[in-house]
Write a structure and sequence with these properties.
Elements: H1 2-17, H2 25-62, E1 67-72, E2 102-106, H3 122-125, E3 133-137, E4 140-144, H4 159-169, H5 175-187, H6 192-206, H7 212-225, E5 231-235, E6 238-244, E7 254-257, E8 260-264, E9 273-277, E10 305-308, E11 316-319, H8 323-330, H9 338-344, H10 348-362, H11 367-380, E12 383-384, H12 387-391, H13 399-404, E13 407-408, H14 410-425, E14 428-434, E15 437-443, E16 452-455, E17 458-463, E18 484-488
Parallel strand pairs: 2-18, 12-13
Antiparallel strand pairs: 1-7, 1-9, 3-4, 5-6, 5-9, 6-8, 7-8, 10-11, 14-15, 14-18, 15-17, 16-17
């Protein structure tokens, strides 16, 4: 709509400059603004008619009997029997380079972000009002225009009670709240899961604990209006929010609906039987676990941590992490999508401290030499411990978490090394998934010696950040004959 305004203004300027109409620029500008206001009002009228019709139809479908479905138990995080200590290269061992076998390639997914909903004219919807309700989102204060008039009470969890509440949510009074939530998503640069958490935190803060059902229905309303694919279900006297994902999410029970897994977002709901409202909302889209940018959360700095490479002691840096970001990651669902961790990269403030030190260390070196500097940093600047020892169970770390927690294991180091090589050297990296182990392979070209995988006419040289003191091209002896699953991240 802003583009339409600019076009109208430019047309007016052209006419004014050509002397077609003998009026001042201010008069033309005023006329154009009036025309644009008329256009906006018409667009809002059409949008409101469409929105009211869709939500009214949706409420009527809600009154029909919901389908009984059986839930599948939560998938546990697969156990990876890692060694209690990392493998240290025997300094007497001479490398024997050879092509290695692999067992399939997982392509990099196409990341299609949910588009910002087209919300014409929030200023026309209702008079501007100051947000009145405050809540915390990972240490970051947020405000929306929720007031007593927005509180509603579900008479029950039956179809008609939920449909009646949906009709209330669809009224004009709730529309500014939806607009403000969308704006918060943009202002905080939230990924899809971050937005799910935002509306959850807001809804549960607004409604007391004994009115959890109202909070869940409000979450569903805001997510559907925002373009996300979501379902509501009931189990006994409780409502449940169901969110589908193309990735396998661990530790959440799920329902299989039309070939898709819909995860029960509240892990405390362990019931096996649900009645589901399965109607699609127009133009709904699947949410993604990808994190295209870090959320803009208030900074609560952690204790500084000194990281030093053993072979290159000049690679020494003190880093701090945002504990609010760590809390956000701590709530992030674990999945089988390893590329999610690599694509998340590092927080920009951390990069501002870490990357200048690493760039100085690799300046003037060839890319293989630089890759060796980086791999020794990841191998030796971090203390090793298995997930079982550190957390009591399996857990992959995002790169920032590897810099934050006192210990890391093979997958954490492979993920961090992938980020450093991609962003500092600009090279293509793949993850190598072995039974109980994760490593990397880097495409340098055809003239770099080392164990490698021949993939689509290109050589990917093994680089293992957990094979202590090994250089690029050296894979752990026990994995030379083990087929790896190759995971693309580009």
């Amino acid at each position: 709509m802003r583009e339409v305004y600019r076009i109208l203004l430019v047309c007016g300027l052209v006419c004014w400059g050509g002397g077609v109409v003998a009026q001042t620029f201010e008069e033309y500008k005023k006329r154009v603004e009036q025309d644009f206001a008329t256009y906006k009002a018409e667009e809002w009228r059409k949008f409101k008619e469409y929105r009211d019709r869709v939500n009214a139809e949706f409420a009527e479908y809600m009154r029909q009997a919901w389908t009984k479905r059986e839930a599948e138990p939560a998938i546990p995080v697969p156990e990876r029997p890692e060694p209690p200590k990392p493998v240290v290269k025997d300094p007497k061992r001479q490398p024997e380079y050879e092509p290695l076998p692999f067992d399939g390639v997982i392509p990099a997914p196409k990341v299609v972000p949910v588009p910002q909903p087209e919300v014409p004219l929030p200023d026309v919807v209702a008079p501007k009002r100051r947000p009145t309700f405050s809540f915390q989102f990972y240490g970051t204060p947020c405000r929306v225009s929720l007031a007593e008039e927005h509180r509603f009470t579900l008479k029950g969890t039956d179809e008609n009670s939920v449909a009646d509440a949906w009709a209330f949510l669809s009224s004009d009074s709730y529309f500014p709240v939806f607009v403000e939530c969308v704006k918060l998503r943009s202002d905080l640069q939230l990924c899809d899961w971050g937005y799910v958490r935002l509306v959850e935190r807001m809804s549960e803060a607004f409604f007391p604990a004994e009115r959890r059902n109202e909070a869940r229905l409000l979450q569903m309303y805001l997510l559907t209006q925002s373009g996300y694919k979501v379902r509501i279900a009931r189990t006994g006297e409780q409502l449940a929010l169901l969110l589908p994902s193309k990735d396998e999410i661990y530790e959440y029970s799920y329902l299989n609906l039309k070939g898709e897994k819909y995860y029960v977002i509240d892990p405390s709901l362990r019931q096996s039987s649900f009645h589901v409202f399965e109607r699609e909302f127009p133009e709904e889209r699947l949410f993604s676990l990808q994190i295209p940018s870090h959320p803009l959360l208030n900074v609560a700095p952690s204790e500084p941590r000194r990281l030093v490479s053993r072979r290159y002691p000049d690679v020494s840096v003190e880093v701090t992490e945002n504990r609010n970001l760590m809390a956000f990651y701590d709530d992030y669902p674990q999945s089988n999508a390893w590329d999610v961790y690599v694509r998340a990269s590092l927080d920009e403030e951390v990069k501002e401290v870490l990357y200048p030190v690493l760039r100085k260390a690799i300046a003037g070196k060839s890319k293989p030499e630089a890759a060796n500097v980086l791999i020794n940093f990841v191998q030796t600047a971090f203390d090793y411990q298995t997930d079982q020892e550190q957390f009591g169970g399996e857990r992959a770390l995002f790169p920032d978490e590897t810099l934050y927690y006192p210990y890391s294991d093979c997958e954490d180091r492979a993920i961090l090394y992938s980020v450093l090589v991609r962003e500092l050297l600009g090279l293509d990296v793949v993850l190598l998934h072995y039974p109980g182990h994760l490593a990397t392979a880097v495409c340098f070209g055809d003239d770099v010696p080392g164990d490698y995988f021949a993939l689509e006419g290109r050589r990917y040289v093994v680089c293992d950040p957990t094979y202590i003191n090994a250089g690029i091209g050296e894979s752990m002896p026990q994995y030379k004959t083990t087929k790896a699953e190759i995971i693309r991240v580009n």
